[in-house]
Amino acid sequence: MPQNTAIHLVRHLDTTPLGPQLFETRQTPLPTVADGQLLVRQTHMSLDPAMLGWMTSDRNSYIAPVELGEVMRSFGYGEVVESHHPDFQAGDRVQGGFGWQEYALVSASEVNAVDPDLPPEMVLSVLALPGLTATQGLLNIGRPQAGETLVVTGAAGSVGSLVGQLGKARGMKVIGIAGSQEKCDWLTHELGFDAAINYKTEAIGEKLDEVAAEGIDVFFENTGGAAQEEVYYRMNAQGRIVVCGLIADYTAATPAPGPNWMQIIKKRLLIQGFTMPDHLHQTGELLQQLLPHVQKGEIKYRAHVIEGLDAAIDGLQLFLTGENQGKLIVKL
Amino acid sequence: MPQNTAIHLVRHLDTTPLGPQLFETRQTPLPTVADGQLLVRQTHMSLDPAMLGWMTSDRNSYIAPVELGEVMRSFGYGEVVESHHPDFQAGDRVQGGFGWQEYALVSASEVNAVDPDLPPEMVLSVLALPGLTATQGLLNIGRPQAGETLVVTGAAGSVGSLVGQLGKARGMKVIGIAGSQEKCDWLTHELGFDAAINYKTEAIGEKLDEVAAEGIDVFFENTGGAAQEEVYYRMNAQGRIVVCGLIADYTAATPAPGPNWMQIIKKRLLIQGFTMPDHLHQTGELLQQLLPHVQKGEIKYRAHVIEGLDAAIDGLQLFLTGENQGKLIVKL
């Protein structure tokens, strides 16, 4: 009888250091598929920095922690092996929140069908959380107009790189801020960004005055840190600031103060924070917005693929060292 | 032949102290009324703190300065004495940007008809800039829901007092922050606010924990200063912050930093700055939103009326001393 192998979270990250001691691998018989359900064999899993947050016991976050004993939460790509829902049949490719396991039993309403011609790495790098986040944040909150100027921080990250490319696809001038010369070169040479600023070696404000002398219309904020104020004070009237991530503040001992609010009135700024758990029910609509850009070849990605379910455990370490080259994906 | 008396701005406030030396009174023959125009005899003029900004030569503001030699800019109430537009006839009551003068020649498209049964003081205190500002800010940006909690700073001011009453009319719990016990008593005893906090004598944070233990859904910010951070850190998820004024920052030698942005993500906050010059073309729609509340008697106001066109010059001083009791109006 076929078995399912799953990795369960058994300790929280706020009591135990990151490592194999947080997890336990268990085998169980494959479950029975009820009406409306699908059994999916997962072939590729996405690893995302947000997982580190889900692994703590912090109930004040915007997303509930993974409970001890539960299969570790994750998004993935797979093939339907048994369907009890009329919209799906065996062999269909789907993505959804499958968790760290080989087989997932899910409601048909919780998965999205995927074009089988698209590489799984592309689906998870572009059409999953990073792409949904970039689409909701840039297109629906930032409301970009052709000819406007966009600045994105964390520009070489899985979200930031898509935000900048979507901006280019919508006719914007795009400036990325990233943390290495290699990343900056990738942004301008490969992804078509108009300019990139290495915040570790360049004076952000002076460089912005040079490459965005016309001012900034949309600021997509992924990082916090010194870039925030430099971009904020260069916003144009009616500018939109999309607050998606503040990595510098997650790890700072004392969060830095924000900028004075006078600019918010003078420039009539919109500042909007968002997190994807609020918008996952819109996944279908978001993919409809994103797919045309993918189909036109406007979106490039880098995937960093590691092999085997167990590799996920060590894979998380790469978020702490920053050694991953592109979107982290576990191939099962 | 009838004459028009007008007060012109002849010096800017950034070169000359506030006082009669900024102005010159001139008499001119009444102008000829062209097609599409109205001649209005102004009976009441509104004095507003924003005028002090219009009187400087600062071209970086969101509204152009009054040019030297121009009639001082203001909003007022009056009676049509001659109409060359089919929608208006002599005797109609109108409001619009008439300036500091007895008669104004205006395009019919620039004025709004007013119900002649409404007292002019009420029109200028409620149905003019203060009410338009409160309506746009609270109803259209703040999107209040019954049962939600609203905190408004500058709560006893011409805008703040209307914001709080609109909040009550929409079924919100309303907490005002103001600068004297007399103002706080007026808010709770006369205007129906659920609570008021005297920021000069009370610990704002502790008092908010007491009167808004459920958290804050809408923050209407008129003042800046210490209240800002105390309210910000008590916002609920999906909260809206309407940034309308920051008096404390206008006058501060060094603007205070704002709060850290992490709350914007954690709570998915919307922060939106606005100024009315962007929205004056929506005056008709805004009045449609506001009028039902006025007609149901849900909106009270205090008018501080001074007499004679020349009184406007000294009237401006009251904004610096804070001695006015209610909305400042000049009766011609």
N- to C-terminal separation of chain A?
20 Å
Low-confidence stretches of chain A are: none
Main beta sheet strand tally, sense and closure of chain A: 7 strands, mixed
Would you identify the CATH architecture of the largest domain in chain A?
3-Layer(aba) Sandwich
Q: What is the percent of helical residues of chain A?
A: 25-40%
- How many distinct domains of chain A? 2
Describe this structure as you would to a colleague:
The structure is a homodimer. Chain A is of the alpha/beta class. Chain A has 2 domains: about 5-115 and about 300-330, Quinone Oxidoreductase, Chain A, domain 1 (Alpha-Beta Complex), CATH 3.90.180; about 130-275, 3-Layer(aba) Sandwich (Rossmann fold), CATH 3.40.50. Chain A contains 12 helices and 15 strands. In chain A, strands 3, 4, 5, 6, 7, 14 and 15 form a 7-stranded mixed β-sheet that branches. In chain A, strand 8, helix 4 (about 160-170) and strand 9 form a beta-alpha-beta unit. In chain A, helix 3 packs across helix 4 (about 160-170) and helix 3 packs across helix 10 (about 285-295). Chain A is globular, with a radius of gyration of 21 Å. Chain A starts with a strand and ends with a strand. The model of chain A has no long low-confidence stretch (mean pLDDT about 95).
